[in-house]
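Researcher: For the annotation table, I need structure tokens for Lysine N-acyltransferase MbtK. Please keep the output clean. Sequence:
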Amino acid sequence: MTVTLRPLDPGADTPAIHRWVTEDRAGFWGMGNCDLARVEEIYSYIDEQEHLAAYVFEVDDTPVGVLQTYDPEVDEIGQWYDRRAGDVGVHLLLADHPARAGRTNEVIAAGLTFLSAQPGCARLVFEPDARNELSVAMMERIGAQRGPLVQMRTSLTEKPAQFFFLEVR
């Protein structure tokens, strides 16, 4: 089994991502009501921004998830916690796909390795919805340190955000 990450291609990857984000299990992702065109618009916007990036996880060349990053110095999420130089914000969505079954730990490990190798990255910042028990448990499993719990309101979301931090250097 080989896990890789590649840059997300909004045109080519939108159909798979649309399926993933509109599943009930992806409700915390906040795109459940988006049609195909809106999903492509969102990921095209991300692709155009210097402070944002999106990648596709693949297991043996089969797409199984999305990894998004943001620069907390630029992104509005950064106003909700004490930022540090070298912070990289992370959003993660794993698909319910047979190619990922039983391989979640390897997929997450590949993502963490990829992120920690990014130039200047010193700490990963996660802010899952505090009600998302699976994400919170995953943060604890990877050894991330619990940070503040805030009632986050941004242009894209409103949620009780539980911050987690993972030192990579």
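Researcher: And a one-line annotation?
Model: The two ends are 27 Å apart (CA to CA).
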